[in-house]
């Protein structure tokens, strides 16, 4: 029973990271109707920035918050410089831009930081918290950090004028322009916020998977699965999907197929959801008259 509980708690910890990345994917999809395939590489590059600051002697949490700010600025810059010029282009053109961004960030990280695997420090103690052996301090801390981030994002979109304006711009751009909302900048801020959330997920997962330019390859696949399971147009569904995928991945990997084949869980979930319920568990089924 203790081993089972450990797998569940560890699944919740990784599921929170998947939920953060899935939320970032859903935010950009709701604003642009596009899936940001480069979200994982943005998180990876931001994690390298944090590692550089820590190596330079910065305290962990100072480097953490500085990285979040830099990631926000990077997300806004990418939207303004790369995405805005092709926003009315065919979908295939935008997909090519995303693929190019993946290659650029991955190669840039390898060129600057090398492809040598590095250890990334955890801000939490190594000893088990409260004498519990079913959860590590990093897993518990990761869950807490993720929940704080998700609650802050919810409060921002629910209670602040800027958050409400961003929601309006994403849901109905034309009406938003009529009431004076600068839709273009709202979308850019959405990219920045998604990039900052992804950076948080990268810094939380790096102590577990170690730091290298390809560290987010598997993680972003699980995040895609989480977004699809919960609903690609539902922020709350993406969060729920992240926790579901995290726990399911751990349990199936530990008791059914083994850890070597855990990545197939994400692939099976993606294909299964697309076949059975493309809108996801909490997504809206959109019907259009043609």
Number of alpha- plus pi-helical segments:
11
Please state the overall shape, judged from the principal axes of the Cα atoms.
globular
The span between the termini is 54 Å
State which percent range the strand residues make up: under 5%
Task: Tell me what the structure shows.
- The protein has 290 residues and is an all-alpha fold.
- It contains 11 helices and no strands.
- The protein has one domain.
- Helices cover 73% and strands 0% of the residues.
- The chain starts with a helix and ends in a 14-residue tail after the last helix.
- The mean pLDDT is 84.
Task: Provide the fold topology.
Elements: H1 2-32, H2 39-55, H3 60-83, H4 91-113, H5 137-159, H6 161-171, H7 173-178, H8 183-209, H9 217-230, H10 235-257, H11 263-276
Helix pairs in contact: 1-5, 1-8, 1-9, 1-10, 2-3, 2-4, 2-8, 3-8, 5-6, 5-8, 6-8, 9-10, 9-11, 10-11
Report a brief summary of the structure.
This protein is mainly alpha-helical and 290 residues long.
What characteristics describe this protein?
cell membrane; BCAA_transport_permease; 73% helix; transmembrane helix; mainly alpha; 290 residues; transmembrane; 11 helices
């Amino acid at each position: 029973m203790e081993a089972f509980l450990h797998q569940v708690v560890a699944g919740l910890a990784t599921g929170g990271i998947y939920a953060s990345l899935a939320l970032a994917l859903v935010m950009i999809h709701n604003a642009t109707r596009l899936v940001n395939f480069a979200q994982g590489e943005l998180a990876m590059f931001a994690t390298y920035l944090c590692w550089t600051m820590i190596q330079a002697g910065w305290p962990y949490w100072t480097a953490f918050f500085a990285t979040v700010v830099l990631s926000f600025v990077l997300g806004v810059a990418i939207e303004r410089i790369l995405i805005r010029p092709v926003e009315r282009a065919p979908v295939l053109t935008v997909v090519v831009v995303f693929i190019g961004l993946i290659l650029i960030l991955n190669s840039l990280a390898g060129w600057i930081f090398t492809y040598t695997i590095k250890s990334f420090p955890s801000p939490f103690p190594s000893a088990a918290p409260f004498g519990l052996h079913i959860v590590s301090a990093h897993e518990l801390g990761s869950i807490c950090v993720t929940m704080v981030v998700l609650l802050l994002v919810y409060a921002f979109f629910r209670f602040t004028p800027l958050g409400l304006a961003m929601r309006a711009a994403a849901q109905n751009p034309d009406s938003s322009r009529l009431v004076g909302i600068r839709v273009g900048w709202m979308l850019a801020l959405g990219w920045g916020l998604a990039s900052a959330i992804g950076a948080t997920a990268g810094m939380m997962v790096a102590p577990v998977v170690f730091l290298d330019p390809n560290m987010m390859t598997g993680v972003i696949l699980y995040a895609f699965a989480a977004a699809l399971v919960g609903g690609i147009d539902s922020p709350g569904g993406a969060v729920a999907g992240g926790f579901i995928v995290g726990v399911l991945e751990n349990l199936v990997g530990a008791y059914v197929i083994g850890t070597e084949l855990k990545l197939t869980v994400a692939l099976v979930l993606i294909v299964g959801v697309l076949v059975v319920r493309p809108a996801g568990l909490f997504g809206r089924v959109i019907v259009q008259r043609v």
